[in-house]
Amino acid sequence: MPALPLLLLSLLLLVAAPAIAKDVINFCKCTCGQNSTIIELTRSALTHLPHASEPIDTDTLAPNVCMNCTRLLCGIAEPALCDGAAVDDDIAPLCFQRDSLQDELIVSGFLLLVIGLLAWTVLRSHVKPVVDRLWTRYGYTNVAQDSPN
Ligand SMILES: *[C@@H]1O[C@H](CO)[C@@H](O)[C@H](O)[C@H]1NC(C)=O
Ligand SMILES: *[C@@H]1O[C@H](CO)[C@@H](O)[C@H](O)[C@H]1NC(C)=O
Hints:
- The chain has 149 residues and is of the alpha+beta class.
- The protein is 50% helix and 15% strand.
- It folds into two domains: 3-19 and 105-144, no CATH class; 24-98, no CATH class.
- The chain has helices at residues 3-20, 43-46, 71-77, 101-146; strands at 24-32, 35-40, 92-99.
- The structure holds 2-acetamido-2-deoxy-beta-D-glucopyranose (NAG) (2 copies).
């Protein structure tokens, strides 16, 4: 493959990569006095909460799942959250986002591949003429000189 198209293609992929696998996960941080807990706002995590006082119906989750990061949810997910806290302490829910680890790995792997391709392209275009020259000088030429006419 010629170097320039490959280079352009690689650059294009480099620019596009973060957009391809962008998928954020929402988390709900519930704080009560000194205690806090972080709940992953995904269906599978919400159905496997270790301390939940009652099952959470993930079919009713709001399209913007941060809407479900509420005192109610915190109270169900972690019933003992306010145990030992001062009487006037209340649950404070806070929604935040993070890229999923899996996506980050995919993007990183993808970038490595692209960078590898770029490096290979650049190296090849620089190394190949040198190798060819050496080959011509020490390999091919000697054979040509030694061979009888
Ligand atoms: C999520 O939020 C929506 C809208 O506020 C509500 O109707 C639904 O019951 C909530 N679901 C859960 C599991 O909290
Ligand atoms: C909250 O903290 C109290 C002690 O301050 C503790 O007894 C309780 O188990 C904690 N709850 C959680 C959910 O960590």
